[in-house]
Amino acid sequence: MDVLHKIVNAEIYKGKADEDLVLETLKRDDVYALLIDRYKQKLARYIKRISSLSNEDMEEILQETFIKAYKNLNDFDTSLKFSSWIYRIAHNETISYLRKVKTIPFSSFTYQEENEEGTLAEKIAADTDIEKELDKKIIHEHIMEALGALDKKYRDVLVLRFLEERDYEEISDILQKPIGTISVLIKRAKEKFKNIVVEKSIHTEL
Amino acid sequence: MNDIDKNIIEKIKSGEITKKPKWLFVVEHIGLWVLLGSTVLIGGAASGVIFFSLTDHDWEMYEMVGKTFFEFLIISLPYFWIILLIILSLVIYIEFKNTKTGYRYMPHFIIGGAILLSVALGGIGHFLGVGETVHELASNNIPFYEDFIYDKKDIWSHPERGLISGKITKRDEGKFELTDWNGGVWEVYTSGTIWNGVATDTMNRKIKIFGTKNEDSTFSAEEINDWKEKAQRMRK
Question: Which residue from A minimizes the CA distance to B105?
Answer without folding.
Answer: A178
